[in-house]
Write a structure and sequence with these properties.
Layout (H helix, E strand, L loop, with lengths): L2 H11 L9 E3 L2 E3 L6 E6 L4 E7 L3 H19 L3 H17 L1 H12 L3 H22 L6 E2 L5 E9 L2 E5 L5 H14 L3 E5 L6 H13 L6 E3 L4 H10 L3 E7 L2 H11 L5 E5 L4 E5 L5 H13 L9 E7 H17 L17 H16 L3 E4 L3 E2 L9 E2 L2 E4 L6 H4 L6 E7 L2 H8 L4 E2 L1 E5 L3 H10 L4 E4 L14 E2 L2 E2 L12 E9 L1
Parallel strand pairs: 7-8, 7-10, 8-9, 10-11, 12-13, 12-20, 13-18, 17-18, 20-21
Antiparallel strand pairs: 1-2, 3-4, 5-6, 6-24, 11-23, 14-17, 15-16, 19-22
Helix pairs in contact: 2-8, 3-5, 3-7, 4-5, 5-6, 10-11
Bound molecules: nicotinamide-adenine-dinucleotide.
Length: 494
């Protein structure tokens, strides 16, 4: 079915046929052992469009057993074969991009264009790590003539992937692609509001040639399905993306088993604009740094830290651009889609209401709203809060929605102090024409990645991750494989 037919079919019936709705374990879809179900909402209409299995510890146990058997097969699959299979997965993802993107948009609320970007970016992730699968060499080490010494890079074993709802496909694939390339097996727990694309991608991987059992998906809640997964002693690495509070809980839960952990948590990333920067470039950069994916991005540029001289011209442009953004159902492909859930919309609204009540100046937006075409759905207006102090809650707390906080500085030291002035340290952008200022700031800002004069520059080839409360470990890039392999040292006395 063409993408237009899929969309018009959905708007007519309010449902999508052929959605997977059970766990994916040992290469097949299986219902929950207890038979429990959950519903998934379309955030663009605030109505249910499908249901799915609500997993419990019994399903997790089944999936981890399957992944343990799968690991024994996959570990011994020749690297060149793993490479070919992951390349085929990339090809299938591209071939099925329409179906995947429609489901991703519908489940998450994001626009269709954003969903296509996620699907094609994820196909690239499979290609990138396919290219690495047969290059995971060890090294030979010179201990003198009495020993031959070398290292092997071995897969860590069964890995668990706890995935959030803002990037259900991209976050999943940036975890499982390097895990599979390195020879690990996986059990995935998607977010409770976005279960479908993980199930579809697991099934696609089997068609690409991944043996049954190597990739498994258990859907359900964090408490019922996520917690038993991360606590299972057969799991040797957990990759978690989500909130700080849950991440801290996962860290404590894996400690007794001494399980490896990657934590990709929140952010409150600054876009720092110096007086010499181009006002139009700053306004355009700041617009998409915060309003892409309705601001539900851990690395969103949620703070504009701007020199006093540039404040008026940039804010004039930025407010105009923000007011011109169109909002609406993700499948109608407006500029900005819905936020993911009613609960999350309430949380964003509460942040902005608190700001209003303490007298913060709201330059635009500030209200929950709905799809102008239907009057339905969970939307929040593009919002800009001006003149915030360093300790303002809207600066210190992650809002995770389309809400930009503006902070003004006088000189470079103050800019740096403001940029580093939260407990997060994930990403940062610097806008200036002066290369020395750019380099000084890039070195001194505490963050996993700093971009200059293009907030979203970069790609899957670069490592991504945070410091301090933004987490630890790196995903993407060749560094992304490190968590899934470990070195073994071997010596042979001769
Ligand atoms: P969350 O951290 O509660 O959930 C993320 C994932 O963890 C989900 O799959 C969830 O089911 C799972 N989970 C929850 N409890 C678990 C447990 N005890 N053990 C194992 N897994 C568990 O995030 P949320 O409630 O969906 O969102 C709340 C806030 O988190 C957002 O407002 C935002 O600030 C932040 N967030 C950050 C990211 C990110 O990319 N860093 C993504 C989503 C949400």
């Amino acid at each position: 079915m063409s993408v237009n037919a899929l969309i018009s079919n959905y708007f007519t019936t309010g449902a999508l046929s052929d959605l997977p709705s059970d766990h994916f374990i040992d290469g097949v879809f299986v219902p929950s052992e207890r038979g429990n179900r959950m519903e998934s909402f379309d955030p663009g209409t605030a109505t249910v469009f499908g249901d799915f299995a609500a997993g419990t510890a019994a399903d997790v146990d089944h999936a981890v057993s399957s992944a343990s058997a799968g690991f024994a097969l996959w570990r011994d699959t020749p690297p060149a074969r793993r490479c070919a299979i992951l390349m085929e997965a990339a090809r299938l993802m591209r071939a099925e991009a329409d179906w995947l993107a429609v489901v991703e948009s519908l489940d998450s609320g994001k626009t269709l264009t954003e969903a296509y970007g996620d699907i094609h970016g994820s196909a690239r992730l499979f290609e990138y790590y396919a290219g690495a699968a047969d290059k995971l060499d060890g090294r030979s080490v010179n201990l003198g003539n009495d020993n031959a010494a070398f290292t092997l890079r071995e897969p860590v074993g069964v890995t668990a992937h706890i995935v959030p709802w803002n990037y259900p496909t991209s976050t999943l694939v940036r975890g499982i692609a390097p895990a599979l390339a390195g020879g690990c097996s996986a059990v995935v727990k998607p977010a409770e509001t976005t279960p479908y694309t993980a199930l579809m991608i697991a099934e696609l991987l089997i068609r690409a040639g991944v043996p049954a059992g190597v990739v498994n998906v258990v859907t359900g809640t964090g408490q019922e399905a996520g917690a038993p997964l991360v606590q299972d002693p057969r799991v040797r690495h957990v990759t978690f993306t989500g909130s700080v509070a849950t991440g801290v809980g996962v860290m404590q839960a894996v400690a007794p088993n001494v399980t490896g952990l990657t934590l990709e948590l929140g952010g409150k990333s600054p876009l720092v604009a110096f007086a010499d920067a181009d006002a139009e470039a700053v306004a355009e950069g700041a617009l998409w740094a915060i309003f892409s994916n309705a601001g539900q991005i851990c690395s969103a540029g949620s703070r504009l830290v701007i020199h006093r001289d540039l404040h008026a011209p940039v804010l004039e442009l930025l407010v105009k651009k923000a007011k011109a953004l169109t909002l609406g159902h993700g499948l109608r492909n407006t500029d900005m889609g819905a936020v993911n859930s009613e609960r999350h919309l309430a949380a964003i609204t509460a942040h902005v209401e608190h700001a209003r009540s303490r007298g913060v100046e709201i330059l635009c937006g500030g209200q929950a709203t709905s799809d102008p075409e239907t009057g339905k759905g969970w939307f929040f207006e593009p919002t800009i809060l001006d003149g915030l102090s360093a300790q303002d809650p809207a600066i210190q707390q992650e809002i995770f929605g389309p809400v930009l906080g503006v902070q003004v500085f006088e000189d470079e030291e103050e800019a740096l102090a403001l940029a580093n002035g939260t407990e997060f340290a994930l990403a940062a952008g610097v806008y200036t024409k002066d290369i020395a200022t750019a380099l000084r700031m890039a070195r001194r800002i505490d963050a996993g990645q700093v971009t200059v004069n293009d907030y979203w520059a970069g790609g899957i080839e670069l490592p991504f991750g945070g410091n301090r409360k933004s987490g630890f470990g790196r995903e993407k890039g060749l560094e992304g494989i490190d968590a899934y392999t470990r070195a073994k040292a071997i010596t042979l006395a001769v």
